[in-house]
Amino acid sequence: MSQAITDRDAQLALLNSTDPQLAANKRLVWDMYRTVLQAGHADRAAEFIAEDYIQHNPNVASGRQPLIDFIKGSRPMREIEERIMLPLVNMIAERDMVMCVFERPEKDAEGQPYVTSWFDLFRIENGMIAEHWDPALKSVEMLKFDPNSKRTPPTD
């Protein structure tokens, strides 16, 4: 059973926090995810990503420009959606960190579908995304991987 939150209003509710800074950090990540990662608007990365951005994904170098180059090379520009289209399970913020957790449909070696998890963890500094972690392994295929091409149909 899916735990994904695909309704825009329910996703917006995830951005709430009694701490206004945590709410702002979650909103920054949510807007960046929709605009840059999902819609491929690499030209808008400077609105969200620090120039000296630290990247822990082994397939992309640190720095804003290498991220821009990765986005341009791995996905087309699309319309900016009003919600994250991937199966978002939760957004969690603590201190200067925001984590997005997603369901990730995959197929095993025999072609049988299964669902696993994916996370993106971002560190915020001075109102910008300064650092990123995810569980990616080093892979040539990952350089062209566009997770947004595996969209789930809207349920709202």
The name CATH uses for the topology is Nuclear Transport Factor 2, Chain: A
Number of strands: 5
Return the structural class: alpha+beta
**Average pLDDT score:** 90
For the record, the count of structural domains works out to: 1
The CATH class designation is Alpha Beta
Q: Strand count, sense and closure of the main sheet?
A: 5 strands, mixed
Strand order of the largest sheet: 1-5-4-3-2
How much is the radius of gyration in Å? 15 Å
Order of helices and strands: HHEHEEEE
Shape: globular
As an assembly, this protein is single chain
Entry summary:
With 156 residues, this protein is an alpha+beta fold. The chain has a single domain (8-135), classed as Nuclear Transport Factor 2, Chain: A. The chain is built from three helices and five strands.
How does this structure look, described?
- The protein is 24% helix and 28% strand.
- The protein has 156 residues and is α+β, with helices and mostly antiparallel strands.
- It has one domain: Roll (Nuclear Transport Factor 2, Chain: A).
- Strands 1-5-4-3-2 form a five-stranded mixed beta sheet, with helices on one face.
- A hairpin with a 2-residue loop joins β2 and β3.
- The protein is globular, with a radius of gyration of 15 Å.
How would you summarize the topology of this molecule?
Blueprint lengths: L7 H7 L5 H19 L10 E7 L8 H11 L13 E7 L2 E11 L5 E13 L2 E6 L23
Parallel strand pairs: 1-5
Antiparallel strand pairs: 2-3, 3-4, 4-5
Summary tags:
156 residues; Nuclear Transport Factor 2, Chain: A; five-stranded mixed beta sheet; 3 helices; 5 strands; 24% helix
